Amino acid sequence: MNLYSFMLLTEETAQAAEEVYSEVAHYGIKEYLVSGVGLLVVFILFAAPLFLAVIPANIAKKKGRNFGGYYVFGYFALIPAIIVALVLKPVEVKEVKTKSMSEIINGRRKK
Q1: Where are the beta strands (DSSP E) in the chain?
Q2: Residue 10 to residue 5: CA distance in whole angstroms
């Protein structure tokens, strides 16, 4: 991306923000939020993170970490949560030797 296209992008963003501000000033915030653009803004700010937070949570779950904790982390800070989940080392699962019911009853262990 060169400087000219970045300037155009910034000007377009500024114009879009100015349009939103003028609509809110003209109609009021309540009417703006129930309009089509307002619903899109509400979706982007609140509903989209609900779905996107699953990404770092699944990565962490595959590495043996807590799904719920990383879901909440991903909801509030998506990009850092993805980075942390990718950098995590998998949890090593220790193998536990268990006795079968017959060994417990008979009092001896398998070798």
Answers
A1: none
A2: 8
What rounded mean pLDDT belongs to the chain? 78
Task: Name, in order, each residue with C-beta under 8 angstroms of 106's C-beta and a sequence gap of 6 or more.
Answer: none
- Report whether 71 contacts 49 (CB < 8 A): no
User: With DSSP H G I counted as helix, E B as strand and the rest as coil, what are the percentages for the chain, rounded to 5?
Assistant: 75, 0, 25
Classify 63 as helix, strand or coil: coil
Give the count of alpha carbons within 13 A of 94, CB side only.
Answer: 3
Average pLDDT of the segment spanning 8-21: 69
Distance CA 50, CA 43 (A): 10
What Cα–Cα distance (Å) separates residue 47 from each residue in 39, 43, 72, 74, 94? 10, 5, 14, 13, 39
For residue 45, what is the DSSP state?
Answer: I
77-102: per-residue pLDDT in tens? Answer: 999 999 999 999 998 877 667 777 77
Region of 2 (left: φ > 0; alpha: ψ -120 to 50; beta: rest) is: beta
